[in-house]
Amino acid sequence: MGKIRVALAGVGNCASGLTQGLSYYREEKKNLLGLRKLTVGDYFPWDIELVSAFDIDARKVGQDLSHAIFAEPNNAVKFAQVPKLNVPVHKGRVLDGVGEYLKNIVVVAPAPEVNVPQILKQSGAEILINLLPSGATEATRWYAEKALEADCGFINVTPTSIASDPEWAERFERAKLPVVGDDLVDQIGATTLHRTLLNLLSTQGVHVSETYQLDVGGGTESLDTLERTRETKRKIKTETVKSALPYEAAVVAGTTDYVDFMQNRRDSYLSLKGTYFGGTPLEIELRLSTVDATNAGAVLFDVIRAVKLGMDRGEVGILSAISAYAFKHPPIRLPLEVAMKGFENFISQA
Ligand SMILES: NC(=O)c1ccc[n+]([C@@H]2O[C@H](COP(=O)([O-])OP(=O)(O)OC[C@H]3O[C@@H](n4cnc5c(N)ncnc54)[C@H](O)[C@@H]3O)[C@@H](O)[C@H]2O)c1
């Protein structure tokens, strides 16, 4: 099978995790620990090829992607040597890409903006992954537009509604292109952990009365969240967590703060209170400590390969099974195990 040719909009920490992950698993074919799936259809992770990239920061634009991923203000952990990729980072349109809190951190490149659809086509990209800051709503829509113009499928990692917006979904369907989103789930994120715990407790007959999940992180995305998307993220996460319980409870889940010295690490604090047999009280307190950038890699590997599989089969518009499996705000939300089964069915279809 041929390669999967992928372009990146936004060369931040998440792009760093994905790019490094591709080098890591290409080199370490014997050590495949850490992946969710070795194959999706007939595709291996190393069938994914990054062919073009766009950003706006002066320290990234004009650099090869292999260098740009390590440029400031990115602070993702370095876990792989990335050889020169011959993929220059091109300047996209800024729009609302830089929020107030990031104005002193992001340095907008003076270079003129490129013709994004032209570069996408020249590089042979078939899928564009949107990895912009979560507050960059206008810019996200702009890249979705460019994907349509360049005949690329679209993976929306950000919380801006694209796959879950019926108008956008219809536009991709009319263009005979796939779209998946919105807001990627982490490989092992607090939301999935929270949902799994609630599911376990409720199936064991525990009545959970109140629960919360609070995050602190040190990547630029945490800072942007604090300024622009705290409420949106809180809404998405709270709804997702609530959906794991078959009854009403007091639930709050959402990002709370930015702690600069944490770099790209994220600490998530979970608290659950309820009662079990005979009204006996039960409490769980736990902390999940992860790194943001690497938490997206394994899920992105699966999503990219599944979207390509859908494209091979001529599937267009929203790919619901992928969206429900890998995103926090899909067009149709399903219980975890149903979503996983749906994804397995999707990839095993002839
Ligand atoms: N585990 C994860 O990393 C994870 C999980 C779920 C969702 N997400 C989402 O992924 C997105 C990216 O996260 P991140 O941590 O990499 O953020 P980041 O801040 O590290 O990276 C964003 C990048 O986009 C660039 N950018 C800003 N405006 C642009 C524009 N107009 N055109 C091109 N580039 C532009 C910035 O310069 C930066 O390099 C966020 O929306 C986040 O919510 C990430």
What does it look like?
This protein has 350 residues and is α/β, with parallel strands linked by helices. The protein has 2 domains: 4-185 and 294-348, 3-Layer(aba) Sandwich (Rossmann fold); 190-290, Dihydrodipicolinate Reductase, domain 2. Helix content is 36%, strand content 21%. It has 10 helices and 11 strands. It has helices spanning 13-27, 65-68, 116-123, 137-149, 166-174, 190-203, 220-242, 292-312, 320-326, 336-348; strands spanning 4-9, 48-55, 89-91, 127-130, 153-156, 178-180, 207-217, 250-258, 265-276, 280-291, 317-318. Strands 3-2-1-4-5-6-11 form a 7-stranded parallel β-sheet, sandwiched between helices. It has a 4-stranded mixed β-sheet with strand order 8-7-9-10. Helix 2 (65-68) links the parallel strand 2 (48-55) and strand 3. Helix 6 (190-203) packs parallel to helix 7 and helix 9 (320-326) packs across helix 10 (336-348). It is globular and about 65 Å long. The two termini are 15 Å apart. The mean pLDDT is 95. Nicotinamide-adenine-dinucleotide (NAD) binds next to helix 1, strand 2, helix 7 and helix 8.
